[in-house]
Design goal:
With 284 residues, the protein is mainly alpha-helical. The chain is built from ten helices and no strands. The chain is 78% helix and 0% strand.
Length: 284
């Protein structure tokens, strides 16, 4: 159990840092459709390499794992595309609130409703605090297009956790977590790359900053998701994803202090509410 929480903490830090790499890429490569698919192909390929070493060059195959890897790849592609679009118009800490709350609420509900996980006072209090965290960030003057992108990220990031839970809980023949993660990265890179010849737009010049951003995001994202999959074998989704949500909101806002996008008072309040939610989850 302690080991699972250590893996969650490591994932929190990685997810928080990956947003910064995403932002660097958008700043240097733009947020066009072509730029998004180059990014997806690149970061998935980088993650593919690191996962190949994690699984010790071991590989096996089942039909269920293959189908789930394709569904997960399509979800990753949609989430990555809308993330890049969102970064062009919203603050990194606001984006992280939508991203992580989506990544918490959908797995939380699916864990309770479909996988019969217990619903107790600690989880309810935690959810209330975290929902409040997103409510305080709303401002009418926000860019409407940006908010639409944020809601898209909310949904697709949430589905990532749901798909992970389905894979981990399924009784169908399946591979281990490292092979599944490897297949997810491979399918994501393959599908995204197959779209590139049909997407018009200016070619991306692979500067040092772009390469570092793509590689950094890919390694952090894939390793973090692999650790989540491992801990999901021990912890219920209704505990794991609220913990991740609150933690990443806090880390992302802290990172915001070191960038030109300083967190607002509303976003700082969302951090306080997120911290209260995590505390309730762990202590009640």
């Amino acid at each position: 159990m302690v080991g699972s929480y250590i893996m969650l903490c490591a994932s929190v830090l990685m997810f928080g840092l990956q947003f910064r790499f995403n932002q660097i890429y958008e700043k240097n490569a733009g947020n066009s459709l072509r730029a998004a698919f180059v990014f997806i192909t690149g970061y998935s390929s980088a993650g593919l390499i690191i996962l190949l070493f994690i699984n010790g060059l071991h590989f096996d195959f089942t039909a269920f794992t293959f189908i789930m890897s394709i569904l997960t790849a399509l979800d990753f592609i949609a989430c990555s595309y809308f993330s890049i679009k969102a970064f062009s118009v919203v603050n990194i800490s606001l984006f992280s609130v939508f991203s992580m709350l989506g990544g918490m609420l959908l797995p939380f509900v699916s864990g309770i409703v479909f996988f019969h996980e217990a619903l107790n006072t600690a989880k309810i209090v935690c959810i209330l605090f975290l929902v409040a965290a997103i409510c305080v960030t709303f401002e009418r003057k926000k860019n409407n297009a940006g908010m639409r992108y944020c809601f898209a990220v909310f949904f697709f990031n949430g589905m990532s956790g749901v798909l992970s839970k389905i894979f981990q809980a399924s009784e169908y023949p399946k591979t281990n977590e490292s092979v599944y993660s490897f297949l997810c990265a491979a399918m994501t890179a393959l599908i995204a790359a197959s779209f590139l010849p049909f997407i018009r737009g200016e070619k991306i010049r692979f500067t040092k900053k772009i390469v570092v951003a793509v590689a950094g995001y890919g390694i952090l994202n894939r390793v973090a998701n692999y650790l989540l999959l491992l801990s999901l074998a021990v912890l219920p989704a209704s505990v794991q994803y609220p913990f991740i949500t609150g933690g990443v909101i806090i880390v992302s806002v802290v990172i915001g202090f070191f960038t030109h996008q300083k967190p607002t008072k509303r976003e700082m309040l969302s951090v306080a509410l997120s911290a209260a939610g995590i505390t309730a989850l762990m202590l009640l």
